[in-house]
Write a structure and sequence with these properties.
Length: 192
């Protein structure tokens, strides 16, 4: 299916565990791995519920993707982030008891055309490449710097209706690291 690279329209959600460096230092690698395992277990149902696909895990980061129409439908791409946050924070006593922490996340959301194809001989995998992924990652970085939970591009938000309770705060046109053109972005918060 992906033996020849092809263009696809996709949405990507980059999610990062906030304060992960301090958590890893305090817990040690084995306990920190158990924390990550618990978080991944808790995010599974929200990803399935919003019909997303886990593209990759990279340390404390998870990247979730949707074909564009599926991600936009019922604002699945936005709902996924907040459903994951709710699933993980739904039993704070368990995380406090086991790890002495309440995990929280930062996220970046963007979509558009990417190239998808198989890569590798020794370890083959389907890889997505393109500026869309770089922009989503930079929006996640901006969310950390600006104190937002989730920052989404205007390109995505212009195409969907936000779920009830989710509020968008304009961030303006952002000059993101490594990008020539600025990106319209919005900080998203869930008030209920």
């Amino acid at each position: 299916m992906y033996t020849r690279p092809k263009a696809e329209e996709r949405i990507f959600l980059f999610m990062d565990l906030a304060g992960s460096t301090q958590l890893a230092e305090r817990l040690g690698s084995a306990r920190y791995f158990e924390l990550l395992r618990r978080v991944v277990d808790d995010l599974t149902e929200p990803v399935l519920q919003t019909r997303g696909e886990i593209y990759q895990y990279a340390g404390d980061e998870v990247v979730i993707t949707w074909p564009t129409e599926r991600g936009l439908r019922a604002a699945n791409c936005v709902r996924c982030f907040f459903l994951i946050c709710a699933a993980v924070s739904g039993n704070p006593a368990r995380y406090e008891r086991e790890f002495g922490a309440r995990p929280t996340f930062r996220g970046g959301l963007h979509g558009g055309t990417v190239t998808a194809g198989e890569l590798g001989d020794l370890r083959q995998q389907i890889v997505f490449v393109g500026d869309i992924l770089n922009t989503a990652a930079r929006l996640e970085e901006y969310a950390k710097q600006a104190g937002f939970d989730l920052v989404a591009s205007g390109a995505v938000l212009d195409r969907l209706t936000l779920p009830a309770g989710v509020k968008a705060t304009p961030c303006g046109e952002l000059a993101l690291r490594g990008k020539a053109a600025s990106v319209a972005a919005f900080g998203l918060t869930n008030g209920g």
